[in-house]
């Protein structure tokens, strides 16, 4: 996929498609942006909320990919849109992951559900299950950057 992406950029950048109104650097940025949009689906998608709350959003990705930051930004966006998001700290293996999510949630003004201390202590599956019940009781949308893919907002960092 990466090779095809690079080939498409090279082809467009060296082809007759080069716009005269843009300098070469601007043209490359424009081409890369358009190719990325095409790879990622090419259209804007809206969140679809569950008919029966809570709506669960699971974030998955490699360690260091930015899931915790994205969870905070998503929580802030949802809060500003009038929702009551809940971040779930289910990454109980990575040192200080729970504390990191608590800081991100505090900065975003979003509640964090963190019943376990983390750093190798606790059951992430139980946290995920319990978070859904907690969200139902408090009518929340759940989102997190944390452990195993279960029916909750959790991923592995």
What layout of secondary structure does this protein have?
Elements: H1 2-14, H2 24-39, E1 56-58, H3 67-80, E2 85-88, H4 97-108, E3 111-113, H5 124-138, E4 141-144
Parallel strand pairs: 1-4, 2-3, 2-4
Helix pairs in contact: 1-2, 3-4
Approximately how much beta-strand content do the residues carry?
5-15%
CATH homologous superfamily title of the largest domain = P-loop containing nucleotide triphosphate hydrolases
- Number of separate strands: 4
Strands side by side in the biggest sheet: 1-4-2-3
Output the number of helix runs: 5
Number of domains: 2
- Overall residue-averaged pLDDT value: 81
Gyration radius, rounded: 20 Å
Helix content: 40-55%
Could you explain the architecture of this structure?
This protein has helices at 2-14, 24-39, 67-80, 97-108, 124-138; strands at 56-58, 85-88, 111-113, 141-144. With 157 residues, it is an alpha/beta fold. The protein folds into 2 domains: 2-39, no CATH class; 56-144, 3-Layer(aba) Sandwich (Rossmann fold), CATH 3.40.50. A 4-stranded parallel sheet has the order 1-4-2-3, sandwiched between helices. It is elongated. The protein starts with a helix and ends in a 13-residue tail after the last strand. Residues 145-157 have low confidence and may be disordered.
Brief digest:
This protein has 157 residues and is α/β, with parallel strands linked by helices. The chain has helices at residues 2-14, 24-39, 67-80, 97-108, 124-138; strands at residues 56-58, 85-88, 111-113, 141-144.
């Amino acid at each position: 996929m990466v090779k095809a992406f690079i080939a498409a950029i090279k082809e467009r950048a060296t082809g007759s498609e080069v716009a005269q109104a843009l300098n070469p650097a601007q043209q490359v940025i424009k081409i890369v942006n358009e190719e990325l949009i095409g790879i990622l689906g090419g259209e804007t998608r809206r969140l679809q909320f569950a008919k029966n709350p809570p709506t669960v959003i699971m974030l998955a990705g490699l360690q260091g990919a930015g899931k915790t930051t994205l969870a905070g930004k998503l929580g802030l966006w949802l809060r500003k849109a009038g929702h009551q998001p809940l971040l779930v700290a289910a990454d109980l293996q990575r040192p200080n992951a729970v504390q990191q999510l608590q800081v991100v949630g505090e900065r975003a003004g979003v509640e964090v559900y963190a019943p376990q201390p983390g750093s190798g202590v606790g059951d992430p599956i139980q946290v995920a299950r319990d978070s859904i019940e907690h969200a139902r009781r408090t009518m929340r949308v759940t989102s997190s950057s944390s452990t195993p893919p279960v029916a909750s907002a959790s991923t592995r960092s």
